[in-house]
Amino acid sequence: MKNIFTTIAITVVITASAQEPWTMERCMSYAAIHASSVVRAKWDLESATATRNQAIADFFPSVSAQVGSQFSWGRNIDPETNTYNDVTTFNNGYGIYASIMVFDGGQTINRFKQARNERKRYVNAVEMQRDDSAIAAMMAFADAFYYQHSIRIAEDRLRQSEGMLTLTTTQEELGIKGAPDVAQAEATVANDRYALVHQRNMFAQAMLSLKSAMNLPVDEPLDIDTTYTALPTINLSESAENIYSMALSTNPKALNAQLLLTTSRNAYDVTKGSLMPTLSLNAGISTSYFKNLSGAYSVPSFADQFRNNRGEYVSATLSIPIFEGLYRISSKNRAKYAYEQAKENLLEENRRLHDEIASAVMDRDGYAAEIKSLKTKVDADAEAYRLNSRKYEEGLMSLIDLQLSANTYFSSRVELLQKKMLFLLKDKLVDYYKGNRLWM
Question: What is the reported pTM?
Answer without folding.
Answer: 0.79
